[in-house]
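Sample entry (334 residues):
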Amino acid sequence: MTALTEVAARYACVAASNIATEFPHATQHVVRRRDEASRPRELHPAFHGSYDWHSCVHMHWLLVRLLGELPDEVDPDQIRDTLDATLTVPAVEAEAAHLRANPSFERPYGWAWAVALAAACETCPDPAARPWAAALSPLTEAIEELSVGWLDRAVAPVRHGVHSNTAFAMALLHESGTMLGRDRLVAMIGKRAVDWFGDDRDYPADWEPSGQDFLSPALCEADLMRRVLPARDFPDWLAGFLPGLAEGLPSALFTPAGVQDGADGQQVHLYGLNLSRAWQFRLLAGALPEDDARTAPLREAAGHHRDASLPYVTGQGFVSDHWLATFAYLALTS
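Predicted structure, serialized as tokens:
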């Protein structure tokens, strides 16, 4: 089994390179005037690399986590220099202003990763992270306000297996918001999670995956409910939601996805699906009693999914390299 220590240096180098790579870039921006700024670096002085805003944000998160947890396995000076250049007060203030002026930009996936980045900086033991955490405060404030308003007004969750998935973002926001003491955000997530998902039963996970998923809608929802329900209530909720887990059913959920064309930027999402499933299978197993009949199948499935995609995390081209290392980190540390 691959250990994070074996790949940490490679992942850190890929992340630092991604952050410094402005082009190619998929700009998620509505241009309203002919003279409006449109270059990534002008729109996003902090997060203009890694092909798109959210990938740049979680590449920052990956570097902070590696610096804090495995400083002897990476080049700490490279990480510090990379993040000192981007996580400055003026740059992050500009990012916060952009979100406030464009309140649907990167909702909800990028928002969730940005708050996760703030939480990672806040808890990182390296002294270099202190100014990064302080600089990120205005962005966290903006996202908390936007998230509470969005969750209060949303009429239903989005259940797709891509960036728009509501449960994935809520789970990440709940975890990071708890770490940062963002009680209003955490409370809103708890309420909406129960409202939207509390009565779900017999989820059709045998319909998964779609051809460009990098998230499992079933496992994202289960992971969110693991976080918001009392620990004593979660096993029963999970039994109603995915009743076949002890038997490894549905088989579609337990079978790693294959990729036919590694140059297809959408199809390679399936590499990420395997890694995010591996992460969430492990988290769900950890929320169940050790002698629960579902625990062993979930852990076994996590290993199969992790091993199916780890060889493709780097070296397959920019369509994979710009984001997959973050999901590999999750699969290796869950």
